[in-house]
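hey m, so remember when u said the tokens were messed up on ur end? i reran from scratch. heres the input so u can diff it against urs
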Amino acid sequence: MSFTSFFRGLFKKKIKKIPDDPAELTIDIRKHCFVINGNKLEVPMHINALSAVLGEPRAHKFKTEAKTREVLEKSSGEPVTNRVNYTWDALGLMCYTHNGKVVNTFAIQLGEQINNSPSNAKHTFRGTVTINGMSWLPVIMAGKDCDVMRQAYIGDYLITAEYTDFDQDDSTRTEASFTGLEIQLK
């Protein structure tokens, strides 16, 4: 019995196949979940739930210095024991964990990344992202500007959208102005 078959039986939920063409991938962010091509997911979740939907990711483990661990634990309210980021390179998707198992942030790589993190996806996301079935950009633009990113609250989630041109006037920002979206609990 494969892991996917075991997982489906365990949760009695049919996992919908991700299309072969990454451009056909859809992600809709909602108040209490996000949906990838009909598969309802939530943050936090176990990495196995996400892998059952997206396939096996590439893993990148981080050595966490004491000072970084302290900051992460204070901001997240949870122990940081085994930081692992997972990446689906062909899909332009990533997620972050503090213990190697529970996903605390799900990320969509929309454009070229500024930092050269080894856990960045090798390709950008080519599918469609929506928030409650509508374009994500107006929702993000209605959120708070934080000098290097915009933040919007959607139900249980904080959605962070990073941009690269810090001097660009907000009225001229388009979807191409942003490098990524991250979904995490408030």
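this time it looks ok to me. Residues 165 and 177 are 7 Å apart (CA to CA). if urs says something different then somethings off w ur setup not the seq
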